[in-house]
Design goal:
- The protein has 218 residues and is of the alpha/beta class.
- It folds into two domains: 1-102, Alpha-Beta Barrel (TIM Barrel), CATH 3.20.20; 119-217, TIM Barrel.
- The chain has helices at 30-33, 44-47, 61-67, 83-92, 106-115, 125-137, 170-178, 191-199, 210-217, and strands spanning 8-15, 21-23, 28-29, 35-38, 72-77, 99-102, 120-122, 152-159, 161-162, 165-166, 182-186, 204-205.
- Strands 2-1-5-6-7-8-11-12 form an eight-stranded mixed beta sheet. Strands 3-4 form a two-stranded antiparallel sheet.
- The longest helix is centred in the middle third of the chain and has 13 residues, at 125-137.
- The two termini are 16 Å apart.
Length: 218
């Protein structure tokens, strides 16, 4: 990733049975390792030898942080049980300044902000909906609504649309920027959509094909 000139890596976090934070999107191991168990039912020593879906084993968060000391990480907290362990792992690696915590759950993120006000975070789904409604109504967005004065919220991360309803509009982007938030859009692998989003002045695009994004946007 760094060799391509990219600064950020997006990934998902889950907790093993013995409390190790691992990079894993799926709740269970069916799709990647043909194993019906959930990540939370497997000890790390066993999980390390399982296929993560690309012919390689699973990766621990602490190993990823140490292996890529200049890379910034955007990590999605997939379960409430992983919040404390993920935060402690990042603290132990002295990587708070290069990790942003994300989650669909606004409550999960609120818990993390209370535990570590210095942590970078994005908005949860319920707060994103509030931003969408206010942007369409042209209503100013009060930062205290989400306790931003008590935590470091610097981004809103959204799909381009949801069930056919446009999310990322010019007004939405402008409202987010006015509130001091960057707009990150996931997951975009089509060059035409990348160009459209760049024209809307979004700040980042999450993609499974970073080389295509660099070629398209540069």
């Amino acid at each position: 990733m760094a060799a391509l000139g990219l600064e950020w890596m997006e990934t998902d976090l889950r907790l093993t049975a013995d409390g190790v934070v691992v990079l894993s999107h799926d709740e269970d191991l069916r799709r990647t390792a043909n194993d019906p168990r959930t990540v939370g039912e497997v000890m790390w020593a066993e999980m390390a030898d399982l296929d993560s879906g690309d012919g390689r084993g699973f990766v621990r968060l602490d190993d990823a942080l140490h292996a890529h000391p200049t890379m910034r990480f955007n990590v999605d907290l997939k379960d409430s049980c992983v919040v404390q362990a993920a935060l402690q792992t990042v603290r132990d690696a002295e990587a708070l300044e290069r990790v942003r915590f994300a989650s669909f759950s606004a409550r999960r993120l609120a818990v993390l902000r209370r535990q570590e006000p210095r942590a970078m975070t994005s908005l949860g789904v319920s707060d994103v909906l509030g931003l969408m409604l206010r942007s369409e109504a042209a209503v100013p967005l009060p930062q205290t609504r989400w306790g931003w004065t008590r935590g470091k919220v610097d981004a809103v991360q959204v799909p381009e649309s949801y069930h056919g309803v446009p999310v990322v509009t010019r007004r939405f982007v402008a409202s987010a920027h006015t509130a001091g938030l960057e707009v990150h859009v996931w997951t975009v692998d089509d060059p035409e959509r990348m160009r459209r989003l760049a024209d809307l002045n979004v700040d980042a695009i999450m993609t499974d094909v970073p080389s295509l994004a660099l070629k398209t946007l540069n």
